[in-house]
Structure formats: C-alpha cells, structure tokens
Amino acid sequence: MPDTDSQIEAAAAALVEARYAIALTGAGLSVESGIPPFRGPGGLWTKHGEPPMNGWQLFLADPRRAWQQRLDPRGPMRELFEKLAAARPNPGHAALVALEEMGLLRCTVTQNIDDLHRVAGQRELAEIHGNATLVRCIDCVSRWPRDEIALDELPPLCARCGGLLKADTVSFGEPIPPDVLERCQREAGRADCILVAGTSATVYPAAALPIEVLERGGTLIEVNPYESELSDVARVVVRGPAGEALPRIVAAVRRLAPAS
C-alpha cells in the first residue's frame, strides 16, 4: 500500500481530472460527529435491539401505532434523536462542501439520516436512506420539516394529496423513495469518478453505485480507516478517518488547481 501522503495527492489529482465526480458517504462520517453507529460496540441497535425487519409492512398495517411508537419519549428512538440534535458537522462534511463549491463534486449520495451534510452547506445531495428531520408523504413523496407537522391526530396526513405521512427515514422493507433512487442512479450514470468516504458500501442499493462507476471505466477513491470490499478495486485508497483525510485532499486539490 502506498503511503498516505502519495494517496492524498493521487486522490486530489483524480478529482481535478474528473469530468463528473460524485461522492458516497456513510456512517463513519456520522460517527466522527458523535453519532453512534447502529450496529457494533456502542451501537443503538446493540443496546436497544434491532428494529423489526418488516417495519414498512407494520407501518402500513397500523400507521397510528407506528407513529405512537416513534414518538414514545421512553422508546429507543429517544437516544437517537438526542444524539442527532447535539451533533454538528465535522471537517469531513466541510471538505465535501468545499469540493462542491470548487465545482469538482457534482453530487453527494449519503446513507446517513442525520442532516449534517445540509447543515454544513451541501446543496447537491441525495439522502438515499432519508432524513430524520423530515416527514414524507408515502404517496406523492412531498417532504416537510418534522417540526412543521401537527401530530395531535395520528397518523398525520399530507396537506397536498391526503396521503399518509411517515418519517422520511427508510424503514426495513420499504422501497427507496423513487425520486431519490432515480437521482442516485442518474448521478452514478454520469460519473467518471466516485469518492467513497466513511462507508464499506455493503448495503444496497447504495453499494451498487461505486460498482456501476467502475464498470464504466470510472475511478474509485476510497477513504476509510479500515479495509473493505472496495479496497482491492479502488484506484486510490486513503487509510484514515474522513474527518482527517478529506480536508487533506481539499488542500492538495488547491495546490493542484489553485483557481478552482
């Protein structure tokens, strides 16, 4: 494995040379902002138990009960909401914003639900697993901030079409909302370079995006402190946390293309 400094420079060069670069981010980036993972030591599901694998079907069967469970102040969602409310973007988020502002990063697809990319200032964003601060209509896919939805009657209904509202976060068994899935597929179809940061990219359909870029001859840049299934096929592998490595890549980009 080449040394980290040379890989940082190689990652910067690949981004500068790319015609259309996108990014894919995951839980590793959120962990650096103090949000615990779902699985593993200290994970929310490790402590509270995994949610049901048929969560989508349970919501459809009894949406009122599903909302009551989500709003229960003693329930397992309480800790997640507290962590999300306290979290702030880290230098990795800021670095992705910088690459976007330079015109080098066209879109970021994130598996994270914490809203930190938006808070950091990212504009071109596809939240493939939803956003914990939003509520979505399951019929017309309109979205609103959670705090703007009256919850005195459950389940709440869409003001636009009368459909059921649910949390924007994607439940187990629930299809990815079509507007987001189409955006992700469209961006991957355009990309000749993908920067994968803070994720091992094993959860589908997000995991298919790097493979699609690779199969069309594109460049894969992996930023991850750990080896993953992508490591052997990535053109550039930067070993380290995204919050440390991504700012270094931005600095290297500025040295290569100071006018960007």
Q: Main traits of this protein?
A:
single chain, 260 residues, alpha/beta, Rossmann fold, 6-stranded parallel β-sheet, 3-stranded antiparallel β-sheet, 11 helices, 39% helix
Overall description:
Helix 1 (4-17) packs across helix 11, helix 4 (55-61) crosses helix 5 and helix 7 (91-101) runs parallel beside helix 11. This protein has helices spanning 4-17, 27-31, 44-48, 55-61, 63-71, 77-86, 91-101, 116-120, 178-190, 208-215, 242-256, and strands at 21-25, 105-110, 125-127, 134-137, 143-145, 165-167, 193-197, 219-223, 236-238. Strand 2 (105-110), helix 8 and strand 3 form a beta-alpha-beta unit. The longest helix is centred in the C-terminal third of the chain and has 15 residues, at 242-256. The chain has a domain at 1-35 and 89-131 and 175-260: TPP-binding domain (Rossmann fold). It is α/β, with parallel strands linked by helices. The protein has a six-stranded parallel beta sheet, sandwiched between helices. Helix content is 39%, strand content 14%. It is built from eleven helices and nine strands.
